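RECORD CONTENTS
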Amino acid sequence: MQSSMLKLPLYILCAILMQWLMSPAALASAIEEDFDYIRKQNTALEQAILIYESGDKEGALIAFRQAYSLFKEFPNETLRGFALVGIGHSYLHTGKTDSALIMYHDAYNILYDRDPFMTARVASAIATMYNFKGEYRKALQYNIQYLNYVESINKQHQIASGYRQIGDNYLDLNILDSSMQFLAKALTSYKTIGDVQGETRTRNSLALYYTKIGSLRTAIENYLIIHDNLNRYPELFNDGERVINNKNIAESFIVIDEWDKANLYAKKALEISRRKNYSTYKAHILVQMGRILEHQNQVDTALVYFNQALDIYRQKKLTVSQISTLRAIGILYFSRQEMEPALLNLRRALVLADSIQEPSEQMHLSYKLSKIFINLNQLDRAFELAQRSLKLAIRSRNKPVQRAIYLALSEIYEKKYNSTQALFYQKKAAQVRDSILTDQQRRTLYEMEIKYQSHKKEEKIKQLDLQNAISKIELDAKKKQNNFLLAGLLFLLLSLGIISALYKKISGQKKVINSALEQKEALLREIHHRVKNNLQVISSLLSIQSRQINDPTAVEAIQESRNRVRSMALIHQNLYQEEDLIGVDLPKYIKNLADTLVHTYQLDRNLNITTDVDDIHLDVDTIIPLGLILNELISNALKYAFENVPYPQMRIMLKENNNILQLSVQDNGIGLPKNFDVDQSNGMGFKLIRTFLKKLKGKLRIEKTEGAKIVLSFPK
């Protein structure tokens, strides 16, 4: 039986394959939408599109070029951009993908800020091209541009698509927190607009996310929801998607050792692939069935399935699939202690992996071959292969493989009677094992946090349902009350004179009270307004003073003081603008403060800053020290964290739990210095933080992450 460690890469590959198989149809649909938009702009463009739709892609390319020359002669930048889009699409369908990408870039530069809708479409096309090329960071850059444009023109379906594409890019880059954040937004958006296809494909990405963090049960839940949608809405999906979904479910059950369920879904996938003559799908599932048969000790039949799949892969020239299948055959022979055929198949696989420079397969195959040579007592060859595998495992940060190799190296040295080196590698294996356990604990905690947040949302929905039920009861009570009122109408008529007199008296008193209240509110607003104005005057004075100072340190100190003054001014501005003159709307305040500081430090073009703040109102005595603390934390990150960081990110969270507020500021920067101690820091910023935190009766801790994360907690 293969280990989970060796099954997982193939499982992930299947999920990625599903996304790739969807992409051509999605791209074709996008091109059709582009042409529907462009054809109305100009007769020359419409003629070119008609030629394209007739199937003459070369003729369409010539027609779009002629249109481009026409708009160049009679300058019309927007139409030139549309013509370049048409040229790019024509190149794409004649197989000239690099030329298509160049045209899309030229179109993007022309249409930028001229036509938001078309600029968004071109940005999405560029991102798709970079995804095909495997350049996920560049794809992410243009998908973010795409999302910005569609949000500016409020296109809900495109916004959901932007969330999903960005989530997929972060997933490809293994930036898993950000991936989850955007995929969750995409799922919510697709549900809101009722897009079953978008929701289903987002769930596929979520399943891949949960696979990557090791939460296989949750991945299966998502795959089963996809399975239900595929059967419920047959007109929206094709048989290829059904094959892959059944295969993904089967693979999930294999990984968690539920082989009977795996067999059930694998057979469904195989039946569809045979009926539809999907030869490549059929080969993938034959490999899967071979592994299931291997587990059931039907080894000879498993070998037949593996070899059938291998023949298809060779015909299709699918090198990666040939490698994984040869590896599976080699491992099967190794499990039967048939070293010669095991060695033959694994060596063939390694030659293919070396020919295409596939590091993951090189790593696994080198390790397996080293195990065979250990078994054959060829220890020098085993050591050489183990060292090669170890380098690849360290480079890819694959801890399970690292641990397996350390154990293999320990076994080699034991056979060489070198107990010191054997013990050394045993200890290395134990260290990696502890690291894996720590990672698993972190993933478990993160998953628990996600479930907790989901539970909170469900509880909120239940509260709303309860409030609706209470409202209904109150409405029924009012109806009954009206009946009693009708019955007592005679009594009310007799008492009308008295009630009328009392009403006049109360109305007069109410007017006096309301007038006094309005005067007090106006006075309080004026106070907050004047305080804000005075703070702005102080900020302006500091700015004027800084212009007369040549010492950069002094200028920086004055700028920091200005930031602190502005954080307080922003509080008073919110107070006189809001209906609530006592409390400040924290989500709005923190967002404005962060945006102001980002603009001050001129990072707004690159920085991706997100806020997750509970809907809380705080009084002035709490919000002022809190605002000043937050000002220091954000400023410190903007000044020091992001040097040489290509994609800076910052996340600000403020949550309430049992009347305890928890504020965290996290970045993906260079991190705090080693042995950094908040209590011993002599910087002005941390002195202020300690002072105000003491006023709030709070605590501060620093968490170890990729970058820096500072967490403060204090009573509300």
Notes: The chain has 27 helices and seven strands. The CA atoms of residues 67 and 73 lie 10 Å apart. The beta strands are 584-585, 608-613, 617-618, 649-657, 660-667, 699-703, 708-715.
